[in-house]
DNA sequence: ACCATGAGTGGACAACGTACACAGACTTCT
DNA sequence: AGAAGTCTGTGTACGTTGTCCACTCATGGT
C-alpha cells in the first residue's frame, strides 16, 4: 500500500481502500483531443459538442484539462474543421474540371460523413493548413488560363459553396428527424400527418400538399449533388477561353 | 403619494420616493415581440439574440414576460424566420423560369437585409405560413410540365439552397470582419498581413498567396449570386421537355 | 366592495465556457 | 539520495444563457 493510494477526504480522513489511482487513460494530447472531438460530434445528431462531454469521453474528470492543449473551444473547433478539410482532395494534373469535380465529390463524401463540418466551415474562416493546401491545389489547377485572382477564387468558392450548402441541408434534415426520435421514414410520415391534414383542410397550398402526400416524395431527386455540381461546372466553363473548356 | 409608489425592500422597509411605476411601454404582443426580435438581430453582426436583450429592448424588466406570448425561444425564432420568408415573393403567371428567378432575387434581397435568416432557415424546418405560401407558389408554376413531385420540389430546393448558401457565406464574412472590429477593407488587410507573411515565408501555397496579396481580390467576382442562379436555372431547364424551356 | 383574471416581476436552477489556484507525479540538478 | 522545478490533471467558482415558478398589482365584472 503505497502513499499514492492515500487520498485526502473532506473530513481530513484518508481512504486506504481506494484502488490504485486511475491513470487508466493514456496521456492527453492535442491530436487525441481533436480525434475524440470529431468522434463525439459524429455521435451527436446535431454535431454539437460540449467541453464537459469531451472531457468525459477522454476519461478526464475536469474539462479544464483540455485547455492545456487547445486554448479555447473555438480553437478546438478550428482544429476539427481543418481535420475534415484534410479529407478533401483535389486531383492534380488532369485539368481544371477534373480537379473541381474531385474537390466537389470528396467534399461531399466528407460532409456526409461529418455533417457538422458544413456548419463549422461556414461559421469560421478557413485558414488551417489543410484548408490552405486545398485552396492552393485548386487554385493551382486554375492558374494556366489567364484568369484574374478574384475569378480563380470564385471557381473554388462556387464549388465549395455547393458542397457546404448541401451539407447544411443534410444536417438540418437529420436533426429534424432526430428531434422527436424518428428513425424510419414511416415514423416521420406519421408525425407529420396531423400538420399536413390541417393544412390540407385549410384548402390553400394545394400544390404543397400534393407534394407532401406523394408517396414518392422521398425518392432521390434528379437534382442530386452530382448533377448540380455538373451544372455549376458547365457554368464556370463559360468563363474560360473556349479552347480551355474541357469536354464533359 | 399613492400606495402604488410603495415598494417592498429586502429589509422589510419601503421606498416612498420612488417615481410613479414605469408602464411607459405599451402592451406587449406577439407581433411587437417578433418585430423587435428582427430589429435586434439586424443590429447584432452575428444575428444572435438573447431573451434578456430582447426584453430590455422592449422596455420590459423580465425576460419571462415574453414567454406569455411566444412559448420558447425556438418558437420565437420560427416566427422571425417566417416573417422574413414573407418578404420573398414568387412572380406568378410568367413561366417557371421567371418565377424561380424572382424567388432567387427577392430571396437574395431578404438575405442581404437579414443575413441571420440564412442560418435560421437552415437550422429549422420551414413550415410557417409564409414559407408554405412560398413553396406552394413556386410549385404551382412548375405544375404544368408533367414532372413528378420530387422533381418539382427539387427545382425549388435548388434555388433556395443557392439563396441560403450565399446568405451564409455573407453572414460569415460579416461576422469575421466584426470579430476583431474591422470596418474597412484596409483594416482587414492590415490584420491579415502577419498571417499571410508567415504563410508566404513558408513557401508552400504560392497560388493562395498570390490571391491573398492581389489588391483586386475584393473586386466583385464574375460568379455573382445572379450569375450562378442563371447557371442553375440553365441546368434545371434541361430537366424539362424541350418545348417548355423558356429562353433566357 | 369584492374577487377573478391577466400582465409583468424577480428569484432560482441547470448547463455552458472558462479563469484560477492547487495537488501529485515526474524530471533535473545537485 | 534529496531538493527544486515543471508538467498534468483537479476542483472550485463566476458570468451568461434559456426557462420554471411563485409572486405582485392594476383592472374589470359583478
Automatic annotation (TrEMBL), chains A, B:
Keywords for this protein: DNA-binding, Transcription, Transcription regulation
Segments forming domain Tetracycline repressor TetR C-terminal:
94-239
Domain of life of the native organism: Bacteria
- By what name is this protein known? TetR family transcriptional regulator
Q: Which residues form a coiled coil?
A: none
Q: Where is the HTH tetR-type domain?
A: 33-78
Q: Report the PANTHER family cross-referenced here.
A: HTH-TYPE TRANSCRIPTIONAL REGULATOR RUTR, TRANSCRIPTIONAL REGULATORY PROTEIN
